[in-house]
Amino acid sequence: MDNLRDGSLNLMIETMVVQLATGFGLGLLPYMPGTFGSLLGLPLAWWLLSHPPIRQALILVMLLVIAVPLCHWAALWQGGGDSPQIVADEYLMFPVSVIGLALTRRPWILVIAFLLFRLFDAIKLPPLNLLEALGGGIGIVLDDLMAAVYAWIVIAVGNALCRWTAKKDPL
Question: What is the pLDDT, as a whole number, of residue 59?
């Protein structure tokens, strides 16, 4: 009887982890599962931006700590590697692209951050392309973390240029 109960508990845990890792099924979509899975990161990023920057950073560290084992175990149960069905790395790392940027509490900036994040995740600029080779949950998550950092840099530079231009040429 204990073996049956242990087996049921293991199956329940595996199902829960796979559901979270696949974005509650969004990662199972036949087209662009990473993009659709990343959509779960939009409300998460919006909520995160309502907090002070230090709390944002602490929450993102917690998300990173959750994402690595979640993606690692889901990858093992899905056959190994960074399968397209696993999208928790996308939706849990996308908020990094807006951390500390108060201006991103505007919906159109959040959309730009999302598009940049997806672009950088898709084209895998160096060292993004090398991070997946680390394997396991760490490799699965780090490439998305770097894609979010690249998006953050573009948004921060764009914001600085806009402010500089506004100071230079007041209307």
Answer: 96
Domain residue spans in the chain? 2-168
Dist CA 85 CA 42 (whole Å): 19
Q: What is the mean pLDDT of residues 57-83?
A: 91
Short-list 123, 31, 134, 140, CA closest to 78: 140
HEC string for 17-37? HHHHHCCCCHHHCCCCHHHHH
Task: For 112-155, write each residue's pLDDT tens digit.
Answer: 999 999 999 999 888 777 877 788 899 999 999 999 999 999 99
Q: State which H helix or E strand residue 64 sits in.
A: helix 53-77
Would you call the peptide bond into 52 cis, given omega within 30 degrees of 0 as the criterion?
no
Which phi and psi angles does 84 have, rounded to 5°? -60, -20
CA 110/CA 114 separation, integer angstroms: 6
